[in-house]
Specification:
It contains ten helices and nine strands. It is α/β, with parallel strands linked by helices and 237 residues long. Helix 3 links the parallel strand 3 and strand 4. The chain is globular and about 55 Å long. The N and C termini lie far apart (42 Å). Keywords: Repressor, Ribonucleoprotein, Ribosomal protein, RNA-binding, rRNA-binding, Translation regulation, tRNA-binding. Protein L1 is also a translational repressor protein, it controls the translation of the L11 operon by binding to its mRNA. Binds directly to 23S rRNA. The L1 stalk is quite mobile in the ribosome, and is involved in E site tRNA release.
Length: 237
């Protein structure tokens, strides 16, 4: 069994086993982010879905209004003038077939990979490499598009792709622990609204089961789901 550090044991004493009001939970997240590096804010959301069925899968994107707090390195695979467009739009890595070859040989110096639809047949052979890392371009994720400039801008500004894992849980970063609690709340609310808007057609019964937040190395804090869903965006802004 994994040994729990003394630091985490002490932090866990600050967290009661009950759902917290969203802002209280986020203030507590900040208070328990005591690691010696800048921690991220994480959400772990259990949904009432079984992703082994096609109509109960959740895969989409969210634009975090307050950003992610992270520098996102974007790579683009395209052809012709789209390569120039990608460079001008601020892509960190740009190429065509030669970039596909480099990735096959192990090049992975990027956090997001965008491809134009016309190169997807060639990109498909990278599936085994990119899939496990969550980097495979997909139309649902907004990473297969001819509108390269807009896609680069969105992902660099705070757009995230996410999906429910095979147990129906969404694990996602929604900012940095150094953000104000109010800014974290705005991002968490945007995430909740996105998940509600993209409810799979096959989801039956209670959709939201539990929401926990934590810093990277901090204890889990339960958030009152109903309070989060009832929150008006003007209150969170």
């Amino acid at each position: 069994m994994k040994k729990v550090s003394r630091r985490l044991q002490e932090l866990r004493k600050k967290v009661e086993e009950r759902p917290y009001q969203p802002l209280d939970a986020l203030n507590l997240l900040k208070e328990t982010a005591t690691a010696k590096f800048p921690e991220s804010a994480e959400a772990h959301i259990r949904l009432g879905i079984d992703p082994k069925y096609a109509d109960q899968q959740l895969r989409t994107t969210v634009v975090l209004p307050k950003g992610t707090g992270q520098t996102v390195r974007v790579a683009v695979i395209a052809r012709g003038e789209k390569v120039t467009e990608a460079s001008n739009a601020g892509a960190d890595v740009v190429g065509s077939e030669e970039l596909i070859d480099e990735i096959q040989k192990g090049r992975m110096d990027f956090d997001k990979l965008i491809a134009t639809p016309d190169v997807m047949p060639q990109v498909a052979k990278l599936g085994k490499l990119l899939g496990p890392r969550g980097l495979m371009p997909s139309p649902k994720g907004g990473t297969v598009t001819f509108d390269i400039a807009a896609a680069i801008e969105e992902f660099k500004a705070g757009k995230l792709e996410f999906r429910a894992d095979r147990t129906g849980i969404v694990h996602i970063l929604f900012g940095k622990a150094s953000f104000t609690a109010q800014d974290l709340l705005v991002n968490l609310k945007a995430l909740q609204e996105t998940i509600d808007r993209n409810r799979p057609s096959g989801a039956k019964g209670r959709y939201w089961r539990s929401v926990f937040v934590s810093s990277t190395m901090g204890p889990s804090i339960e958030v009152d789901i109903n309070a989060l869903r009832d929150l008006k965006i003007t209150e969170a802004a």
